[in-house]
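Box 3.1 — From sequence to structure: Elongation factor Ts
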Amino acid sequence: MANYTAADIKALRESTGAGMLDVKKALDEADGDQAKATEILRVKGLKGVTKREGRTTSNGLVNAQAGDGVGTLVEVLCETDFVAKGEKFIALAGQVLAQAVASGAADADALLKSSLEDGTTVQELLDGANATIGEKIEVKRVARVEAPVVVSYLHKTSPDLPAQIGVLVGAEGGDEQVARDVAMHIAAFSPSVLTRDEVDAETVENERRVAEATAKEEGKPEAALPKIVEGRVNGFFKENVLLEQAFAKDAKKTVEKVLAEAGTKVTSFARFRVGG
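Predicted structure (token representation):
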């Protein structure tokens, strides 16, 4: 019988993030030696990296850092919530964010190709974690926002999981607290664009077609169709355009009005939701 205890199993699981069965097999093979068992898990894990490429990563976390006029937001994904809330995965995501900040990467591809201080690329870092943890791990998205003022906001959708929603807001003028309030609003109401000018013409035209077809199906009078269609298209804008949304803290005002009253202008924003 291998020379290890339940505490050894727990310690190895926490240090590697590997599954119970894999940990027990590694400790058996290593005769209880933690260092050797860790190496066994890594070697076996690396062999399985290719096999895991097709797996679905629907769990994970978002992480952000903002300051000195720059904000960075990353989404790091894994397969299960067990791994997502583990210390090893959370620490890995912290490394990924730190490298995104240091490298100035504005997208996932650039971040994955960037090199850490030891010469290892972020992709190689993920492959190593993939090997020891035994799950597919990937950097899905990266966002970078630059403005005179940049704030970040992270939101937990479950108390036992790391942040699942992350927001960056770039602004100029006014009170930084207003920008933070807007970041919280964005987390809750998930606008897709800052202004209606950013919605492509094809999307708007499609909304008009759907609105008109729906109104006709409802038997609305022909003379009233233009007004009804316009109202429904405006409703689409109010749902998706940040500046036109009703503000979370005061639904009687739009976000645009709140910003104007505070002398603040939002110049850009980014919002990630894990798996979204």
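Summary of the box: The first strand starts at residue 59 and ends at 67.
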